[in-house]
Write a structure and sequence with these properties.
471 residues; mainly alpha; two-stranded antiparallel ribbon; 21 helices; globular
């Protein structure tokens, strides 16, 4: 068992938080906020029966995420076996060789901007395996590869601007929408958080790249390394894969930008017209394909259809056999399996935290350490909450009304408190979905990551506190 957790320390780290969430139910009573104040109930402990019952609920919380990751694994396993994709990767690698630092920082910025603006960060992962393959071929080691991809996503989390997954939820809870687009209050502060996090991560990444090259440190890490796949004896048609991936990128951006924040209804109007198109009084398109979802309102299932459609096109025009597709999916599932297992541990913490609400009592205690409202104490409380509630949706549900009732005059400051605390926690706690997906995908030990990122965490903590004191 000791050897198992040494080899899989991510499971140990996330598993400890599952146990901590359960332990808290044994010593702290449940509570909830209602108009007038905090209501504390009796201690409601998680026993063995409840433990196994709630574990099953995990599959009800993350079916779309699991299916997305599994399809992503199959998608890239199929791509890695095609001559066109292999040729495309070779050409991109040769093009950026000698400019590794610029490429890494450019990719990091792109991921950060997408994370800061799109409604979901998960669809961005479609492009991560491609980038990882290129970085692996450029001999960029694991930590800089993580920083370029998942690190960029985390920068966009703490420096969110119009992302409905974080900023939109916060603005909705505190009713702080401000015109179109819905930036909410303190957009300059959010940009400062974005720029500071990006610059700090860039500095650490460039330093790590230089240290790795100096020490000649590199271990191959690409799960979909095209070198390990026997190149098919077919003519490589590169341009079709370039066009295909560009179309997927454009579709992802259009589909997950919050167009309603910009008061743009074009995509809603077009989709409505398509869904309501009739022949002899019958909505033929809706009957055949079902109703389409307009750009700006897509969920994780919609982007999976795009990947499946791309696989179908690869089969038809790439002349890939059905047996080879099934075989590729089986191998892809196996490669992505450890990521899924890690996520099950991560979401187990959320289940026990949400179903046994002891955190409201803890948050109330922290805030009452000051007679009046303290944005710094609220930041500490929300950092603790973010450690157990891995999505802003559940943080806003558990604590939004509490702060509206207890600090109604400070909702603008609270919008920054929620975002900065959640963003900072996402960078470091083993219950952060983006962090743990990245560490698991690249097989980076949690302790090694903390050793790499601790300077950024310390600097961003100081920056966040200074900002909260100033505003």
């Amino acid at each position: 068992m000791k050897k198992f957790f040494k080899e899989h320390d991510l499971l140990k780290a996330s598993g400890l938080f599952v146990l901590l969430a359960i332990l808290l139910t044994w010593i702290i009573p449940s509570g909830f906020y209602q108009e007038g104040g905090m209501v504390t109930k009796e201690i409601n402990r998680v026993g063995l029966t409840a433990f196994f019952q709630h574990d099953v609920l995990i599959f009800a919380y993350i079916p779309m995420l699991v299916s997305f990751l599994l399809i992503l694994g199959g998608f890239y396993e199929i791509l890695s076996r095609t001559a066109g994709y292999q040729s495309m990767v070779d050409k991109i690698t040769k093009k950026v060789k000698g400019h590794e630092v610029v490429f890494v920082l450019g990719i990091m910025l792109i991921f950060a901007i997408m994370s800061s603006t799109l409604s979901e960060f998960i669809p961005i992962l479609i492009f991560v395996p491609l980038v990882i393959t290129i970085l692996n071929r450029l001999k960029i080691d694991k930590l800089p590869a993580f920083a370029a991809t998942f690190g960029g996503i985390l920068v966009g989390t703490i420096g969110g601007t119009i992302s409905t997954r974080t900023v939109g939820l916060i603005n909705s809870v505190f009713n702080t929408e401000q015109g179109a687009p819905t930036f909410g209050p303190y957009i300059a502060v959010k940009l400062v958080l974005f720029i500071c996090a990006f610059l700090l991560l860039s500095f650490l990444t460039v330093k790590q790249i230089r240290d790795d090259k100096k020490n000649k440190k590199f271990t191959a890490y690409d799960k979909f390394d095209i070198e390990k796949v026997k190149s098919p004896k077919k003519k490589a048609v590169t341009w079709t894969y370039i066009v295909g991936l560009v179309l997927i990128l454009v579709t992802t951006i259009l589909a997950y930008l919050p167009w309603s924040s910009f008061k743009i209804t074009l995509f809603d109007d077009i989709t409505k017209a398509v869904n309501e198109f009739t022949i002899f009084g019958s909505p033929v398109i809706s009957y055949i394909f079902g109703e389409f979802t307009s750009f700006g309102n897509w969920n994780l299932f919609n982007i999976q259809y795009v990947m499946l459609a791309a696989i179908l096109l690869i089969k038809i025009f790439g002349r890939v056999s059905f047996d080879e597709i099934i075989d590729s999916f089986a191998i892809g599932f196996k490669k992505i399996g450890p990521v899924v297992i890690t996520l099950l541990f991560v979401y187990a913490t959320l289940i026990f935290t949400y179903k046994y609400p002891v955190l409201p009592v803890i948050v109330d205690w922290i805030n009452n350490l000051s007679k009046g409202f303290s944005s710094v104490l609220a930041f500490i409380a929300m950092f603790v909450a973010s450690t157990f509630c891995i999505e802003m949706q559940y943080i806003s549900e558990l604590f939004g009304q509490y702060y509206i009732g207890e600090a109604a005059k400070h909702v603008k400051e609270l919008s920054i408190v929620f975002q900065s605390a959640f963003g900072l926690a996402s960078f470091c706690v083993p219950t952060s979905a983006a962090l743990m997906i990245g560490l698991s995908f690249l097989e980076i030990p949690y302790g090694k990551y903390l050793k790499f990122i601790w300077k950024l965490l310390a600097a961003m903590l100081i920056i966040c506190i200074l900002i909260l004191i100033i505003i």
